[in-house]
Amino acid sequence: MMDLAICIRNLPGRDLIEAGRFAEDHGYDELFVPDSARGAGYDGDGRLTGRDAFATFAAMFSATTTVRGTVGVAAVPMHHRLVLPNLAATLQELSEGRFSLGLGVSHPEQTGRMGVEFPARQIDHMRDWIRDMRSRSSSGMAYGSGWPVLIAALGPKMVQLGAEEADGLVLNWLTPEHAADSVQRIRSAAPAGRRPRIALYLRLMSDEHRYADAERYDAMANYHRNFLAQGIETVDEIVAGTTLPRADLGAARARVEQYREAGIDTLCIYPMAFDAGDRLALRELTR
Q1: Do 151 and 104 form a contact (C-beta atoms < 8 A)?
Q2: Does pTM top 0.90 for this prediction?
Q3: Could you count the other beta carbons within 10 Å of the beta carbon of residue 242?
Q4: Which end of the chain, C or N, has fewer beta carbons within 10 A?
Q5: 3-state secondary structure at position 190
Q6: Which of 181, 256, 193, 275 is nearest to 3 (CA)?
Q7: How many helices (H) and strands (E) does the chain have?
Q8: Which residues contact 139 (CB under 8 A, 6 or more apart)?
Q9: Can you tell me the mean pLDDT for 264-268?
Q10: What is the CA 97 to chain-centroid distance, rounded?
Q11: Beta-carbon count within 10 A of 282 CB
């Protein structure tokens, strides 16, 4: 059975509370929130933007009872190994077991903006982080233990690592066909007796925002290679193959079923801003 989640970035705390309550009322099991505060993003006027996912999740967990929450994902080059587990344990304790921690290696464009060195050996770097965070979660904290550790996986080597070492994987920008291939590889690579959770981000946006997001990601080298590996060469193909049209919810529902059939465990529906149009589309998608 596939769960549905909502992925939202850079919302004020009061709006994330509203999103959590919305999820509980409309058939969504979880919220995923990217680690925007470590993204070094700017608005059109050159002002720094990017609200902290850990702080806003604290507000959301305090005002909800059942919806789960995942930081998806924390860019580990911008975190300290002795600080990040305390943030995770604090939210796990506050939420009474509803928190999961996603980890990602980031990408050179993001670390460069932050003035942080991008890891030279990304797989080894992430293997160390996964093992360290899972050990902290299991027995290395005086409080708030037991949070699952997920990894953002784009290329085949990171997918293999996540299958072997993590409690779950966060995938992004995949067609249903390539999502099914990823699921097969993860299930085959996972150790006996373990079944990592497979989450996938799937954008549900206006055409304007779908195209803008596709262009932004295609400009990053790692994502561009990911698109080419799927036989996707243009922004039009990215939008058509890996996103949901907000203007055609019948087609969107049919595409959701394709990801269900592909074996995805958690489909993270990704609106742009959680405005009235986004909320209407999210409600209608589950009817």
Answers
A1: yes
A2: yes
A3: 26
A4: N
A5: coil
A6: 256
A7: 12, 11
A8: 145
A9: 98
A10: 19
A11: 23
Question: Using one digit for the tens of pLDDT, what is the confidence trace for 188-234?
Answer: 999 999 999 999 999 999 999 999 999 999 999 999 999 999 999 99
User: What per-residue string of b and e applies to 23-50 under the rule 16 or more CB within 10 Å gives b?
Assistant: beebebebbbbbbbbbbbeeeeeeeeeb
Nearest CA to 273 among 49, 67, 2, 117? Answer: 49
Domains identified in the chain and CATH numbers = 3-210+245-285 (3.20.20.30)
Q: Which residues pair with 203 in a beta bridge?
A: 243, 270
Question: What are phi and psi for residue 79, nearest 5 degrees?
Answer: -125, 160
Name the amino acid, one letter, at 223. Y
With tokens 């080059």, the residue in question is 77
**Helices in the chain by DSSP H: which ranges?**
13-25, 53-62, 84-95, 108-114, 122-139, 156-165, 176-189, 207-218, 221-229, 235-242, 249-262, 276-285
Least Cα distance to 107 among 8, 263, 223 occurs for 223
Q: Is the alpha carbon torsion for 236, 242, 246, 247 positive or negative?
A: positive
Residues 234/241, Cβ–Cβ less than 8 Å: no
Strand partners, 268: 5, 201
Burial of 246 (0-12, 13-18, 19+ CB in 10 A): buried
CA trace torsion 7, 257, 225, 131 (10° rounding): 60
